[in-house]
Amino acid sequence: MTALYFIGIVALLGVFLLWLSTRRRKKIGLPAGKVVYSDTGIRRELEKPLYDRSLGLTGRPDYLIEQGDFLIPVEVKSSKAPPAPYDSHIYQLAAYCLLVERQMGKRVPYGQLQYADRTFRIDYTPKLADQLLELLADMRRAERRGGLPPRSHETAARCRACGFQEVCDQSLA
Question: What value does the mean pLDDT take over residues 101-112?
Answer without folding.
Answer: 94
